[in-house]
Amino acid sequence: MVLLAATYLGYPLVLLLLHSFKPLREAGSGRALPHDLAVTVLIAAYNEQGSILDKLKTVLAAADNSPWRVAMIVGDDGSTDDTALLAESVVDARLTVVRCPRGGKASVLNRIIDLARGDIVILTDADPLFLPDTIEAIVQPFADPAVGAVAGAVVVNRASGGKRRLAQFDGLFRTYESWLRTAESRLMGCSSADGGLFAIRRGLFPVVPGDVTDDFYISTAAVAGGQRIVFEPAARVVEESIAGSRRNFRRRVRITVRGMTGLWRRRRLMNPFVTGGYAFGLIVHKLLRRLAPLFLVALWPLSLMAAFASQGLATWFWAATCGGLSLLVLCGVAGLAEGIGWPRPVRMLHGLALHLAGQLTGVWQFATGRRYSQWTPAK
Predict the structure, then answer these.
(1) What is the mean predicted confidence (pLDDT) over 222-241?
(2) pTM of the prediction?
(3) How many whole angstroms separate alpha carbon 373 and alpha carbon 217?
């Protein structure tokens, strides 16, 4: 119970308290980047024919609005649809399309990074759309030489909630993550970045193993190199929520397994004697939060037994705890029924239950040796 409270309440409250006393210092503020700075945008795509043209259009528009030279490389991961053909139909000297054999996202990134030119590399998924100032906002913090990577903000299009009932939960979760990254960034640096949008110095880009979450492993290369990851909320992309509870669940399982694998490979960064306060944030944000569902499962029957065994206010406390967890499970199961217009509170609890169940399953699979070496985007 104490561990759960520390993970979900204690850590955010400590961040809130500490970062409220620390003056805001924007990375790169007051400094100027060279006008001849070269930036490369990398996109790994697999079966993205429905979104690739819109994606390229928004990236090129942001490149037009950037004060620096911007190139873009699309690596097609052996798509079985027209993704590569559509990307190649875009006539622009700044765009290079590389057709790769099917090997997973890491394989594509390891191949196309060799073609990147310039000092800064921006990585983004194939579906979130850039805003006109996205490139300028994500690059500007690199004016601070202590910054090795910059995490951008992924904004969920909540207007699609009518079609995608998890959009409201996804939007709330993204907002929470952005707030957490803002506080971490101000105090000890972000624990990692989101694959929807982040950037890293070209010289820090690592060889990416095939069984990890690439955004975590690549962005934390900055910390391994003695620099910081900062969060820039003005650097935004807009994405649609994934349709379907089962697809969301499977996605969360894969992310958890690959995330735990990446964390194990980066376990040295969890040593406070090596990375200082960053280690504390990494342990809580990336390890304890993933382990928390294990304790919730244990807490459910224990709270029921404690409610019968205790007296007075303790009885009500444990009864409320058991009732809350039972409601969460009930909404998680009920939300699987398709075609029912559940009210917003039920949809939100259903989204939370799916998230926790996916983490629980992913931790179990990681512990039993399951690994995901290929990357298949969920639509």
Answers:
(1) 94
(2) 0.90
(3) 14
